[in-house]
């Protein structure tokens, strides 16, 4: 009951807190790369020469990935950044299973000067829409 009394008496402070939390969430979302839709990803790959960086585990990558995707598991990304040097002049689209690792990976790449976008919905959404997958090879 005291919680509701506090909210009613301090509505301005509570509103300010909610607004700041929202601003922080939006800022963090774009700091890791602008999220892009499936259709935008296919357009970027086909017309602009963008490359996909898949940060899922090896077994998930082998089970199915986007054509010509570069595979570096999220846990190894900071140690293997040198492998991505040839992609510095291209758009890099980071993807994972559901989106939980694409954010930190995108943030790291942006700090190193890469142009980064994140696939909305990750590979789960890609496969749910029956878009083409390549199986095998790492």
Secondary-structure map with pairings?
Layout: H1 2-9, H2 11-31, E1 34-36, H3 38-48, E2 51-54, H4 58-63, E3 70-71, E4 91-95, H5 102-111, E5 115-119, H6 122-128
Parallel strand pairs: 1-5, 2-3, 2-4, 4-5
Task: Based on the model shown, name its key terms.
elongated; 6 helices; alpha/beta; 46% helix
Low-confidence stretches: none
Put simply, the count of helices is 6
Distance between the termini: 57 Å
* Percentage of residues in helical conformation: 40-55%
Largest beta sheet: strand ordering: 1-5-4-2-3
What is the global morphology? elongated
Structural class: alpha/beta
Tally of extended strands? 5
DSSP strand content: 5-15%
Rg, Cα atoms, Å: 19 Å
For the residues shown, what is the average pLDDT?
A: 87
**What is the helix/strand order?**
HHEHEHEEHEH
Characterize the main sheet. Answer: 5 strands, parallel
Word description of this protein:
The protein is α/β, with parallel strands linked by helices and 138 residues long. 46% of the residues lie in helices and 14% in strands. It has six helices and five strands. A five-stranded parallel β-sheet has the order 1-5-4-2-3. Helix 4 links the parallel strand 2 and strand 3. The chain is elongated and about 60 Å long.
């Amino acid at each position: 009951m005291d919680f509701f009394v506090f909210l009613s008496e301090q509505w301005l402070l509570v509103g300010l807190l909610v607004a700041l939390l929202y601003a922080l969430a939006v800022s963090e979302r774009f700091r890791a790369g602008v999220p892009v839709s499936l259709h935008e990803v296919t357009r970027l790959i086909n017309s602009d020469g963008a490359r996909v960086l898949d940060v899922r585990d090896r077994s998930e990558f082998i089970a199915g990935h986007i054509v010509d995707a570069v595979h570096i598991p999220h846990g190894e990304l900071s140690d293997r950044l040198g492998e991505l040097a040839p992609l510095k002049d291209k758009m890099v689209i980071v993807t994972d299973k559901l989106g939980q690792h694409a954010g930190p990976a995108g943030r790291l790449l942006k700090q190193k000067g890469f142009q980064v976008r994140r696939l909305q919905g990750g590979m789960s959404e890609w496969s749910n829409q029956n878009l083409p997958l390549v199986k095998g090879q790492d």
